[in-house]
């Protein structure tokens, strides 16, 4: 009988460079600053998790995650790693919110549990290989010429859809999309993300109507997240389908948006929901309400994105994937994990558990705290 009691928890800071700054309407990201959790059980099983905190979206940083992890880790020592719901309850009792760092613990626990079950994580979550996962590729916010050139390059590389960061003035954003359409043609799938940048319902609707001729699949988070009561009006009047991102953090947010009839699509991220345990609740709610679901992420490495990919295989209701940020790194710290194939195809590992780990060469020199029992 395996002994799945949590024996040790290690917390690491992971810094990695990007090929170029990644810019959204909320500001630029110049460097990857993630936290990695490694959990070991008494029987020698090891699970990995990762989070990518985002100051302007989930209100967490690498430093807050590192500190909060040191509240959570001692409380989980001695807990049965297979009791994920119990571990999530423990973390939620200790501190409110902080879903980014909680997601890293959650992923590591799921890694252990799936390994113990002898199943790849997607199968442990109830999924199967019944679809091919493909990722879009994101055009960062910037000058029109640069955005057009990036979009053309991504089309040439075979990505099946292109996502464009917007969220400035109507004139600037329309000019960007017009130029991109001139570059990639009228039919290549194109998605947009304002990251709350148009602020109000009236401002958002003005831009959305101006962009209507450009054949846009959907628009993420057009207005300020605190104005979610106005999102239903935006969705009803918009010629472009609306996807909630920042307003859809956890299952409680999802239930609220469904009750309000606020939108037709959700973007699920493990760093917003608190991990796989609670993300699956969003999936169930969305599926029952016929919401179109996307799984995305922040700036996770291939480790965190591997967890997201397993989630994407767990339900037929998940139609879109936004797994491109590891492609923006200059270095790859992950052993195993998802592989990026031609034409945006994402191959998910079939080994038991998550199927991904951080290379010891990176962890050996990382700032670290360890808790043991």
From TrEMBL:
Question: What keywords were assigned to this record?
Answer: Isomerase, Magnesium, Metal-binding
Name a biological process GO annotation. peptide metabolic process
Q: What is its EC number?
A: 5.1.1.-
Query: Top-level EC class, please?
Result: isomerase
Cofactor binding, per record: Binds 1 Mg(2+) ion per subunit.
Query: Can you tell me which residues bind Mg(2+)?
Result: 193, 220, 245
Q: Which cofactor does it need?
A: Mg(2+)
Active site (catalytic residues): 165, 269
Which InterPro entries does UniProt cross-reference here?
A: Dipeptide_epimerase, Enolase-like_C_sf, Enolase-like_N, Enolase_C-like, Mandelate_racemase_C, Mandelate_racemase_N_dom
Q: A single GO molecular function, which one?
A: magnesium ion binding
Mandelate racemase/muconate lactonizing enzyme C-terminal domain: from which residue to which, for each copy? 144-241
Q: Which family does it belong to?
A: Belongs to the mandelate racemase/muconate lactonizing enzyme family.
The molecule here is called Dipeptide epimerase
UniProt source species? Hymenobacter arizonensis
């Amino acid at each position: 009988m395996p002994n799945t009691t949590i024996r040790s928890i290690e917390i690491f800071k992971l810094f990695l460079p990007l090929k170029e700054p990644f810019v959204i309407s909320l500001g630029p990201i110049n460097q990857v600053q993630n936290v990695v959790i490694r959990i070991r059980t008494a029987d020698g099983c090891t699970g990995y998790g990762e989070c990518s905190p985002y100051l302007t979206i989930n209100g967490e940083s690498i430093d807050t995650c590192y500190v909060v992890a040191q509240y959570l880790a001692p409380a989980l020592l001695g807990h049965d790693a297979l009791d994920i719901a119990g571990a999530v309850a423990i973390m939620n009792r200790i501190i409110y919110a902080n879903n980014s760092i909680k997601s890293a613990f959650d992923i590591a626990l799921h890694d252990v549990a799936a390994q113990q079950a002898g199943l790849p994580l997607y199968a442990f979550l109830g999924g199967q290989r019944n679809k091919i996962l493909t990722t879009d590729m994101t055009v960062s916010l910037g000058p029109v010429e640069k955005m057009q050139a990036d979009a053309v390059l991504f089309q040439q590389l075979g990505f099946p859809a292109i996502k464009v960061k917007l969220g400035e003035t109507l004139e600037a954003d329309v000019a960007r999309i017009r130029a991109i359409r001139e570059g990639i043609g009228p039919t290549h799938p194109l998605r947009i993300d304002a990251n709350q940048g148009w602020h109000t319902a009236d401002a958002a609707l003005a831009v959305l109507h101006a962009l209507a001729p450009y054949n846009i699949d959907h628009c993420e988070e057009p207005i300020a997240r605190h104005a979610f009561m106005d999102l239903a009006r935006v969705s009803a009047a918009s010629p472009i389908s609306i996807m909630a991102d920042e307003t859809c953090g956890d299952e409680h947010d999802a239930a609220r948006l469904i009750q309000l009839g606020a939108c037709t699509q959700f973007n699920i991220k493990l760093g917003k929901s608190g991990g796989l345990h609670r993300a699956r609740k969003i999936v169930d709610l969305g599926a029952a309400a016929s919401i179109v679901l996307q799984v995305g992420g922040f700036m996770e490495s291939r480790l965190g994105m591997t967890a997201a990919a397993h989630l994407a295989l767990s339900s037929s209701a998940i139609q879109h994937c936004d797994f491109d940020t590891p492609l923006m790194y200059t270095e790859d710290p992950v052993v195993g994990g998802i592989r990026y194939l031609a034409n945006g195809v994402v191959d998910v590992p079939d080994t038991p558990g998550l199927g991904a780990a951080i290379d010891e060469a990176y962890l050996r020199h990382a700032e670290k705290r360890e808790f043991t029992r």
